[in-house]
Amino acid sequence: MNLQSQLSFEEFRREVLNDFRLACISREISLLGRREVLTGKAKFGIFGDGKEVAQIAMAKYFKPGDFRSGYYRDQTFAFASGIATVEQFFSQLYADPNIEHDPFSAGRQMNSHFATPNVNANGEWMNLASMKNTAADMAPTAAQMPRALGLAFASKMFREVPELKEYQHLSNEGNEVCFATIGDASTSEGHFWETMNAAGVLQVPLVVFVWDDGYGISVPRKYQTTKGSISTVMEGFRKSEGSNGFEIYNVKGWDYAGMCETFEEGIRKARETHVPVLFHVEEITQPQGHSTSGSHERYKSKERLAWEKEFDCNLKMRQWLLENALADEQILQQIEADAKNIAQEGRKKAWEKYIAPIREQVQVFLGLCQQIVEEGRGETDFVNQVMQELAANREPARRDILKAAAGILFRHPRNFSGALDELQLYYDNQLLAEKENYNTYTYAAGPNSALNVKEVPAIYADEAPSINGYEVLNKYFDQLFARHPLVFAFGEDVGKIGDVNQGFAGLQQKHGKLRIADTGIRELTIMGQGIGMALRGLRPIAEIQYLDYMLYGLQPLSDDVASLQYRTKGTQFCPIIVRTRGHRLEGIWHSGSPMGMIINSLRGMYVCVPRNMVQAAGMYNTLLLANEPALVIESLNGYRLKERLPENLHDFTVPMGIPEVLHIGSDITIVSYGSTLRIIEEAMHILGPLGISCELIDVQTLLPFDIEHSIVDSLKKTNRILFVDEDVPGGGSAFMYQQVMEVQGGYRWLDVAPRTLAAQPHRPAYGSDGDYFSKPNVEDVVKIVMEMIRE
After folding, report:
1. What's the pTM?
2. E strands present in 588-678
3. Peptide linkage before 704 cis (omega within 30 of 0)
4. What is the pLDDT of residues 73-89, one digit of tens each?
5. pLDDT > 90: what percent of the chain?
6. Closest by CA position to 602, among listed 572, 571, 570, 558
7. Do residues 588 and 765 touch, judged by C-beta distance below 8 A?
8. Which letter does DSSP use for residue 119 in this model?
9. Tens digit of pLDDT for each residue in 271-316?
10. Is 101 an active-site residue?
11. Backbone dihedral region for residue 697 (phi beyond 0: left; psi -120 to 50: alpha; all else: beta)
12. What sequence ranges are listed for the domain Transketolase-like pyrimidine-binding (predicted)?
């Protein structure tokens, strides 16, 4: 060989041996991780053994700017792409709450749940185009798929929308690929099929790797997939000349060279042409079974287990290296020995970082206990026993210290002792410290928070025109899209006809089909499309046509968006705005107000309930100045009601969590939101002449709810309170009741029992009479208020 060929060969050989070294390291990490769980140092483990070689091969083509939306067996990919280190992996396995040790979740997620930051503490988007990125992992099977569509769709927008060319820190002209990984059994989920169909229609650079190990935990593939092969059953999705669809490839999970070659071709095609790609990675093994909670020997035959040993990817790569004279036995043995040491060293460092501060706290606690014993004013025998038990614990947890302290304090409720006072102070401070570790970042703080957006009141000219509510929104969205190039809107019927209530009428023609777009009837992936775009710095307004159909899209909003800031401890943000309409209209599936369901499943998102369209516009303005996700529920029967048009439609803001007093009164406080406010106002026209003065409060947002506790100030004046909404009994009205009575201490100011007025405990019947007898009506309000006044 000439010198150049020799150098090329040596470079190739060195890369291949480094790949094998990483495969060995990752395998040792899996083996060690399982041991740490079984010995009690970690709680649970699920590992990527058997997928090492495939993930190393795919990582070769993962470039800066690309995004991963994967699942919890991608540890080797995380190592190979530089997203994670061995030490960080074990820190997460131990649930270390230090964000510097576990930068993915600060101990809040299980192992192999990776994340990379996208927004800094100043509210500025990071240079995503220069980073290798991953969306924060989730455990629900196939939940990674809907947002993968959006992550890939963003590349299409960055490539095709001229206004986005200037945002070079977010994209390199749309040349990014989204890598989605999924287990073969999880392709049975509807999430997978809806995502694949949408990606095939939209033609976006989504590359899907299906890890096929033949089982879904214990259930064989033949019970999971038609024809026993996901690539076979997806043949109808294959792209042909003149059609849309997918490119489909089949590879063996133990064939290093074959995967490198095939992955390079498919990923390059996706990157250049934006055609989505499916890689069916077959003959994957699971050397340790599904997880630490079971054994695969229980459900796999001896023949299958023997085959898995023979076709183990690391063993196959080892054989390939020997057969091709890329290494001899001695070199490979040294690599394997080094891998054990590297894994052990990373494990040891992570454990020491985790346990050291806990042991320090144990010593502080024992010192405080010793002071109690020496003072001699408490039950010293009991304190000594607590000390001995904690000192004997070789692997104490934070809760062990706090439980021990609480036990002593509960035992001495009336003991006047300086030493016990010191213990009480220590206990209180530790609870605050652990609150920071475990109970923060459900919502954002600082510049990222919508709560910190400055309020700008709406300004009305003396001759301000009164126009229909939908016209207010239409004018607002027209100004918004002209001024804000990162904003996109999409959903069913949003584009050509301008949405079913005409909020976008004529705007697609003005601002383009890419920025205001129609979608298929696919609520789940409309949410996923918005989630992925928001993770990449765009500002999507993703529409669910009617609130009743939120259930289709609720899973990704609850499991992914609402928990995102919490589970990444404020390092990853998804400022999606979900626009929908609901409350009173006609029929079982077009007049829903499932607010209790929404409030309970979307903690971490804002839930805005504007009573009219001007108020809705102000809420959109507020949300677009922050980096938090929100659901905005417009009142379905308010689009044709007249409203005065503000002069500063694009600039005024409505504060989050601040109720508005619509009518001042002295006899009773009535709390509500949305369409029901108009019912209450009608009732007030009857109550007023009867001498009953009502103070009517619009909460404006349910999440957050009355952050300044202004409602209790009204109750102090009236001493009576009624909560009204259209949800089922015990739903939204009960939430408001709990907030004011318990959180705000409103019970102290009551002269009569507080009341709630909700809809009937069933879906609303069709027609005007159905609405009247299913939801709160004017006469219901009048009757309850009069009863409360008479008490």
Report:
1. 0.96
2. 606-608, 630-635, 642-644, 660-663, 668-672
3. yes
4. 999 999 999 999 999 99
5. 92
6. 558
7. yes
8. B
9. 999 999 999 999 999 999 888 877 888 888 999 999 999 999 999 9
10. no
11. beta
12. 467-641
